[in-house]
Design a protein that fits this description.
Length: 358
Amino acid sequence: MSLWPGAQLPDLAGKTAIVTGANSGIGYYTALELARAGADVVLACRNPEKGEAAVARINAEAPGRARFGQLDLADFAAVHEFAGRFKEAHGALDILINNAGVMAPPVRRTTAQGFELQFGVNFLGHFLITALLLTPLMSAKAPRVVQVSSVAHRRGHIAFSDLQSERRYRRWKAYEQSKLAMLIFALELQRRSDAGGWGLLSLAAHPGIAATELFANGPGADSPMARLTRLGAPFIRQSAAAGAWPLILAATAPDAAPGAYYGPEGLLEFRGPPSIAKARPKARDPEVGAHLWDVAEMLTGEALKPAPQPRRAIRRDDPSTLAGCMAGPDPAGPAPLVTPPPAQTWADALPASHAHGR
Ligand SMILES: NC(=O)c1ccc[n+]([C@@H]2O[C@H](COP(=O)([O-])OP(=O)(O)OC[C@H]3O[C@@H](n4cnc5c(N)ncnc54)[C@H](OP(=O)(O)O)[C@@H]3O)[C@@H](O)[C@H]2O)c1
């Protein structure tokens, strides 16, 4: 299936979506199209002024569909606050698009918790928000999570011995690592959902090369790489609106395959109509996926797995329980309440090879 501007999206009325970093660039156009298709969209942005301005622009085209939610992915406390507010206000989350990102700041910067900014915002912040929103996701009928990667993942390497670029900061290497981590995360999430029966569709997408604020916010609008991209723009770059389509396809395509990765279909996947993209084999390695997941759980302090089922007291004489069926009603009167052994958790149902961090 190939979608392009003007194509008909499925009707998203009644669905709730979150798009991180939706005040500009491809996140904005993704949120706009989801809202136009009828979804209620939360624009999860760190800057209230920019976020509210984007909400107003979207609501002018799709009245009442967009709202702002404050989220700074560079601070785990803020991520917890955002997730808490969302859970208070909503029952289910149908679509989570982990789009926000920062690229190649010239000097090494860190998050509130001291992680290298690109690894911390692009990957760890999104790992944490996904973990905290897993319950609302699993309350939706057909939940989807989309991680935004990049063609830069191809040159990426997960440097487990120096994930935070403490020994040496190479800004492009750190960006490539964060974008490879996002693709690995998408594929590992699908593996875990399949193994544990979580019912998630986990997907990834990249925009090719799109004209957004990414250069200005990172290496600088006058950096050599930004100038080079501007020079080759007519051949290698597309608009931010066009760059959003692989994300929109991942979020809505009725025939999306579990773990699919979308990107532009043109030369080197830089531009063009959205289609299936190529993930490098290193992104598909399940051992690396499992290890990165363990590390992310450790660094965020949050296990990404379904919450244990609540304990439920049962009565021996309750015919709806196995004990009740076998024993039948007790003529001596109701039996005392008994507490069952702790309910089996979703994680207990995972094969040992997937039961990490327990
Ligand atoms: N443009 C491309 O050619 C390209 C290519 C490959 C992949 N990508 C990926 O596409 C995604 C979107 O980027 P874009 O190109 O649309 O660039 P953009 O216009 O700069 O948008 C990035 C968004 O992320 C937000 N953000 C940055 N740090 C944040 C934080 N700590 N907490 C919350 N939000 C934060 C920004 O908010 P502020 O406005 O407040 O800074 C902005 O809304 C990124 O993940 C990027 O890696 C882009």
